[in-house]
Amino acid sequence: MFANRAEAGERLADRVLQELAAQAPGGGSGTAPLVLALPRGGVPVALPVARRLNAPLDLVLVRKIGVPGAPELAAGAVMEGAEGPQAVFNDDVLALHGLTPDDLHDSITRLRAEIADRRARYLQGRAPIPVNGRQVVVVDDGIATGATMRAALAGLGGQGAAEVILAVPVAPPAALARLSGVCDRVICLESPLHFQAVGQFYRDFTQVSDDEVIATLQTALPLRDPDDNDRNERK
Q1: What is the DSSP letter of 222?
Q2: For residues 155 and 157, what is the distance between their CA atoms, to the nearest angstrom?
Q3: What is the mean pLDDT of residues 90-119?
Q4: Beta pairing partners, 64
Q5: What structural domains and CATH numbers belong to the chain?
Q6: Who contacts 179 (Cβ-Cβ below 8 Å, separation ≥6)?
Q7: Secondary-structure breakdown of the chain: helix, strand, coil percentages, each rounded to the nearest 5
Q8: Which of 106, 162, 199, 228 has a 20 to 30 Å separation from 191 between CA atoms?
Q9: 34, 61, 15, 59: which is closest to 160 by C-alpha?
Q10: Cα 160 to Cα 9: distance, rounded to the nearest angstrom
């Protein structure tokens, strides 16, 4: 279906631009949109989207908090924000397993350190671009279950984003239905009924390395938020 992530990103960029063309920049806020990629696989897909929208590209760093003894179950997630990595909990899962946030303290501490390390490695420690009042387009190379993406979308809404748009090349219908409740809009190129893994829809689905993430972010234009210039001029 897709030759590789770069080609998927070009096709996704066409669709995103088409759907946003009728809107004023930033969903009517007068502020440029912000494109956020889930590393690592989402970064090469997000680059063409950011370029087509002439938008800054940043990362959304989120790590799942697994239930002790059942790490595949999401008790919550730690997500990066303007005030640092914050924990968001799945209250239903906590109640089902008799857990409290304090029971997950060690996991949360470890995941916060992982997120800080990733930002330092990928972006030389540059602070996240604020999402408050912005139209935010969240990009990944595809969705299987959507647990991590759900945490990312919910967290962005909690940080005051004006509009949160999920944009992916491929995802199963059930996952999209679940995620539509935690974002304002879903843009997905293909939603096949017979879905086993994201990689089955790419001819080349080679794992993206840390070095590739860093190189891609360095080529993103503009990587810095263009609205920073306006803020600096007003100081």
Answers
A1: T
A2: 5
A3: 91
A4: 77
A5: 5-60+128-227 (3.40.50.2020), 63-123 (3.30.1310)
A6: 143, 146, 149, 150, 153, 166, 171, 186
A7: 45, 20, 35
A8: 162
A9: 34
A10: 27
Q: 3-state class of 163 per DSSP?
A: strand
Q: At 95, which amino acid appears?
A: A
Q: Is the pTM of this model over 0.90?
A: no
Residue 67 contacts residue 75 (beta carbons within 8 Å): yes
pLDDT in tens, 58-100: 999 988 898 998 887 888 888 887 667 778 788 888 999 999 9
Backbone angle region of 58, left / alpha / beta, with phi > 0 → left and psi within -120 to 50 → alpha? beta
CA distance 75 to 7: 35
Q: Which amino acid is at 81?
A: G
Question: Which tens digits make up the pLDDT trace of 181-207?
Answer: 999 999 999 999 999 999 999 999 999
Dig out the tokens for 190 from the structure: 């293909």
Q: Which long-range contacts (CB under 8 A, 24 or more apart) does 102-109 make?
A: 103/68, 104/65, 104/68, 104/75, 104/76, 107/65, 107/66, 107/68, 108/65, 108/78
The SS3 of residue 202 is: strand
Q: Which amino acid is at 213?
A: V
Task: Return the DSSP state at 228.
Answer: H
CA 217 → CA 22, 28, 73, distances in Å?
28, 27, 31
